[in-house]
Each structure stands twice: as structure tokens, then as C-alpha cells.
Design goal:
Layout: H1 5-21, H2 24-40, H3 42-49, H4 55-69, H5 73-84, H6 91-106, E1 108-115, H7 121-135, E2 138-145, E3 152-157, E4 160-165, H8 166-182
Parallel strand pairs: 1-2
Antiparallel strand pairs: 1-3, 3-4
Length: 183
């Protein structure tokens, strides 16, 4: 999901607020929890984003939600502010952009690694070290298992995909053999 222009603007403002007390990671975590609850409870999401509901009614629900999630004062007031501006539907986009900004600020890079079987800790550590060395940034790995790749590893860092899977190698070999047979 690509953040909207509105989400990016609110994210930038939230980052500036967090700079005052260095609460970036806490606020990101709290917004993740908020988004998770909203995603899991369609009735709450529908109520909070319904334009026919008055701001005070939504604020009552937000107060209860804030208390149950243990949100900090900053996060709670930020959500209240979005409620007043009727921008609660933007929270997932704001969170996405906020996390991207935090990653850039902290020099973090996210990589998705797919393997046919779960990798052992040593292999994960070696892969992480190689990615950190080549990128010059701290790498956060997201590991997934997909038996259809047969073996090897597929690594995606941003828009760059490094496909070292057996499935890909067999596909390339097949193409080469077909080209050779046609000549």
C-alpha cells in the first residue's frame, strides 16, 4: 500500500512530535496495535470511519480503545486529532509512512527472504551480515517458507530481487536448452 499525500503529511508531523521526547519506536508500536485491532474488528472500524457519526461519539470509542491498548498520551492525542479532522481512515497509511521515515532515520533496511525450508540461525546470520555489508545499513529480515521454490533462497530488498532458487535456475536452464534446440 502506498501512503497518500495526506498520510505522508501527518506522518511527517508525528515524526516531529516524537523528536521532542524520542518516542518514535513507542508510538510506532502503539499505532501498529491500534491498526491491528481496527483490522480485526470491522464493526469498530466502520463506526470510527463513518462520516455520519459525530466526532464526540467516535472520541468516546477512541478513549475506551486507547485505555484498553494502553496508548501513550501522544498517540492518544494524535488519534483524537485525526478524529477531529475526520482522517481516522488514514492511520494505516500514516503508520506505513512513519515506519519508512523511522527506518531511513535509523539506517534500517527491510529484506524479505523466502526459502524452501526454514533456514538455520547460522545461515540467517550469514545472509544478514552479507546484506548489511553490501548495503551499509542495518538489515531487518522477514523470513518466509515456500516449498514451491524447491531449494535456494529468494531475497527481496526494496525493488531488487535476488533469485537464487532452484526453481528459477531450472527455469533458466529450460529456456537455454530450448534456445539451443531451436538453433
Amino acid at each position: 500500500m502506498s501512503s497518500s499525500k495526506v498520510a505522508r503529511r501527518y506522518s511527517k508531523a508525528l515524526l516531529a512530535l516524537c523528536d521532542k521526547d524520542n518516542s518514535h519506536e513507542q508510538v510506532a508500536s502503539e499505532l501498529e496495535n491500534y491498526c491491528s485491532v481496527i483490522a480485526d474488528h470491522a464493526d469498530i472500524a466502520s463506526f470510527l470511519t463513518n462520516p455520519s457519526m459525530d466526532s464526540e461519539g467516535r472520541k468516546t470509542v477512541l478513549t475506551a480503545l486507547s485505555k484498553s491498548l494502553g496508548l501513550s498520551t501522544l498517540t492518544t492525542h494524535f488519534v483524537y486529532f485525526l478524529n477531529e479532522r475526520e482522517r481516522l481512515e488514514e492511520v494505516p497509511g500514516i503508520l506505513e509512512d512513519f515506519q519508512d521515515r523511522l527506518d531511513k532515520k535509523a539506517g534500517r533496511l527491510h529484506a524479505k527472504v523466502t526459502s524452501a525450508e526454514p533456514l538455520d540461525k547460522k545461515a540467517i546470520d550469514q545472509l544478514k551480515a552479507a546484506l548489511e555489508k553490501s548495503s551499509g545499513k542495518t538489515v531487518v529480515l522477514e523470513m518466509t517458507v515456500d516449498p514451491t521454490i524447491l531449494g535456494g533462497v529468494v531475497t527481496q530488498v526494496g525493488n531488487v530481487v535476488l533469485d537464487g532458487s532452484v526453481q528459477s535456475m531450472l527455469s533458466n536452464l529450460r529456456k537455454e536448452m530450448l534456445q539451443a534446440a531451436q538453433q
